[in-house]
Design goal:
single chain; mainly alpha; 2 domains; two-stranded antiparallel ribbon; 4 helices; 2 strands
Length: about 100
Amino acid sequence: MQSQGLGLLVILFFFGLAGGMIGRIKGSSFFIWFLVSFCVPFLGLLAAVLYRWDSRELRRPCPRCKAVLKLHDAVCHHCGAELEFPEVAIASEEAVRRRIAST
């Protein structure tokens, strides 16, 4: 009886590990995706696979402290300034890496 419970924990752990690794590769939090995939095994892992790539998101500078933030951020996490939608965006981290690698 106990071996069945232990087997289930092992399966849940590996679902959590897979979801966490996928989330981390996509630029998100390993721990959050580990918990989601651990608690809801199949759907959590599927959600991690379908989640957006944070490194592909456009960015923008904060008008007050000049920190570079994701375009979808509404508040600067450095200085707390409320952000309006910008007219100009900065290229994503991935695009910058590709441009540097190609030179």
